[in-house]
Amino acid sequence: MKIQTKVFGEIEISEEKIITFANGIVGFPELKRFTLLHDEDKGNDVGIRFLQSLDEPGFAMPVMDPLTVKPDYDPKVNDELLAQAGRITPENLLVLVTVSVPKDLTKMSVNLQGPVVINVEEHKGCQIIVENKEYPVKFPIYEILQAGAGKAGA
To answer: Which stretches within the chain are classed as H helix?
Structure first.
């Protein structure tokens, strides 16, 4: 199916790339169908991806693997919160966090308190709120990413 996107223009995606969020995502309960997009030229080492809405072409949230910036990220979540994503196992679980990219890139952050959980086998997802003060809504990542880029270039 062809979809129109703000970031990538018109692209073709297959039906199995559609992820359904039964209750939408936080702040956008009406948006239920999404796909994950990234720069294909980067292969699997993508860093930031986009959770692109199929219901609203102009809506795409930058997301990333939280372990990239917080290797010990391991929120404890009640199983009932994950029920919308189907039967979750370590093998089918994909956890992503939303990225905030302001004009001043040094203020870039991720939301560790509201991860997006995706069951990659069933193509279902949900966004949950972690009830743990250890994981802030705005976790600064600019310096972490810069340090990682320095290591990669060394």
So the answer is: 79-82, 142-153
What mean pLDDT, rounded, does the chain reach? Answer: 88
Instruction: For residues 122 and 58, give the distance between their C-alpha atoms in angstroms, rounded to a whole number.
Output: 26
- Give the contacts of 69 (CB within 8 A, at least 6 positions apart): 110, 139, 141, 144, 145
d(CA 30, CA 33): 9
Measured CA to CA in angstroms, residue 4 lies from 30, 35, 38, 41, 57 at distances of 18, 12, 15, 20, 6
| pLDDT: which is higher, 138 or 42 | 138
Question: Does the pLDDT value for residue 126 go beyond 60?
Answer: yes
Write the pLDDT tens digit of every residue in 40-83.
Answer: 555 555 688 999 999 998 999 999 999 999 999 999 887 788 88
d(CA 130, CA 98): 14
- C-alpha to C-alpha distance for 102 and 140, rounded to whole angstroms: 12
Helix (H, G, I), strand (E, B) or coil at 109: strand
Distance CA 76, CA 96 (A): 15
What is the value of pTM for the model shown? 0.88
In angstroms, the CA 63 to CA 76 distance is: 20
